[in-house]
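Section 5: illustrative case.
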C-alpha cells in the first residue's frame, strides 16, 4: 500500500504539466503550421529520384529529417528546457528527483513531438513519400499479368513513382501499384493516429485521476501562472529600462527619456534596487508544486515571496532549492 501511495503521489506532479487551455491552443497552432509546411513541401520541393536505392533513402529522409528538425526546434524553444538547464547549472541537479526529471522531460518531449508527429502522419496519409520509398520493393509476382523482367525488375519498379518514366507496356500496372502503396501508407498513418488518440486519452485520464487539484483550483492555478508570468515579464522590462536609464545618466549626466519613461522614473524611483543574483537564482529553475502548512505554493516566485514576507532567511536558504 505504501508503494502504491508513493506512486500515486508522484504522478500528481506529472499531471501539472498538462493543464492549460492556452497550451492546447498553442499546440493546435503548431499542428496546423506543420500541416501547411508539409503541404507546401509536397507541392514545391518533393521530387522522387525514381532510381534504385535512391528512392527509399529519399523517401525516408523526406519523412524523417524534417520531423527531426521540428523535434529539435521544439526542444530548443520549450521554456521547460531552459528551466531544466538552469536547474542543472544553478543547483547541479542535486535536488532534481526522478519524478521531477520524468515530469519535466515528459513535458519537453510531449510538446516537441507535436510538430514531428503531425509531419509524419500527414506524410503517410498523403502517401507520396511512402510510394517513393517502397516502390522498388514491390514484388511483381503479386501483380497479375505482369511480364517477367529478369534482373532489371528492381530498376523497373523504382520508376513507378514517376509515371512518365514507366514503359508504355507497363502503364496499366501503374495505378494498381500506386493504389497498393498508398493504401499501406494511409493504413499506417491511421493506425498511428489511433495510437496517438489512445495515448492522449490515457494521459488525460491519468491527469484527472492523479492531479492534486480539484477542477476549480486547477483553473485558478492556470490563471495564476499565466498572470504571474505576464506581470513578471512586463515588470522586468520596466525595471531593466529604468536601471539602464540610471547608468546612462551617470555616464552622460542626463538621459533622453520620453514622457512615459519620465513618469516611470518618478513613480518607481524608490523601488529601483538591483536584484541580487541569489534571488534571481531562487526564482529560476524547475518547480512542480508543494504546500507549506496547508498553503499552496504555486511557483518559485510564490515560494520566495512567502519566505521573504516572513523574513525567514534561514528557512528560505534551506527550502528554496527544494522542488516539492
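Designed sequence:
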Amino acid at each position: 500500500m505504501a508503494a502504491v501511495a508513493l506512486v500515486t503521489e508522484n504522478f500528481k506532479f506529472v499531471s501539472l504539466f498538462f493543464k492549460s487551455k492556452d497550451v492546447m491552443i498553442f499546440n493546435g497552432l503548431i499542428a496546423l503550421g506543420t500541416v501547411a509546411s508539409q503541404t507546401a513541401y509536397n507541392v514545391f520541393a518533393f521530387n522522387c529520384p525514381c532510381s534504385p536505392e535512391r528512392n527509399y533513402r529519399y523517401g525516408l529522409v523526406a519523412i524523417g529529417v524534417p520531423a527531426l528538425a521540428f523535434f529539435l526546434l521544439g526542444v530548443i524553444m520549450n521554456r521547460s528546457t531552459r528551466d531544466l538547464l538552469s536547474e542543472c547549472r544553478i543547483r547541479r541537479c542535486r535536488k532534481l528527483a526522478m519524478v521531477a526529471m520524468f515530469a519535466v522531460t515528459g513535458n519537453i518531449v510531449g510538446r516537441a513531438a507535436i510538430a514531428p508527429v503531425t509531419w509524419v502522419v500527414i506524410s503517410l496519409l498523403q502517401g507520396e513519400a511512402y510510394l517513393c520509398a517502397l516502390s522498388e520493393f514491390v514484388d511483381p509476382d503479386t501483380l497479375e499479368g505482369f511480364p517477367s523482367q529478369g534482373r532489371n525488375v528492381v530498376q523497373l519498379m523504382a520508376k513507378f513513382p514517376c509515371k512518365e518514366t514507366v514503359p508504355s507496356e507497363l502503364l496499366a500496372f501503374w495505378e494498381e501499384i500506386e493504389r497498393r502503396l498508398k493504401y499501406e501508407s494511409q493504413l499506417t498513418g491511421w493506425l498511428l493516429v489511433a495510437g496517438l488518440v489512445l495515448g492522449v486519452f490515457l494521459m488525460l485520464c491519468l491527469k484527472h485521476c492523479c492531479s492534486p487539484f480539484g477542477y476549480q483550483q486547477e483553473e485558478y492555478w492556470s490563471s495564476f501562472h499565466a498572470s504571474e508570468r505576464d506581470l513578471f515579464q512586463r515588470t522586468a522590462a520596466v525595471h531593466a529600462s529604468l536601471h539602464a536609464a540610471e547608468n546612462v545618466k551617470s555616464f552622460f549626466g542626463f538621459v533622453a527619456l520620453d514622457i512615459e519613461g519620465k513618469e516611470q522614473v518618478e513613480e518607481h524611483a524608490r523601488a529601483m534596487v538591483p536584484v541580487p543574483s541569489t534571488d534571481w537564482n531562487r526564482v529560476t529553475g524547475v518547480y512542480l508544486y508543494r504546500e507549506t502548512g496547508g498553503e499552496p505554493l504555486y511557483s518559485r516566485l510564490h515560494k520566495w515571496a512567502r519566505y521573504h514576507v516572513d523574513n525567514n532567511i534561514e528557512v528560505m536558504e534551506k527550502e528554496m532549492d527544494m522542488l516539492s
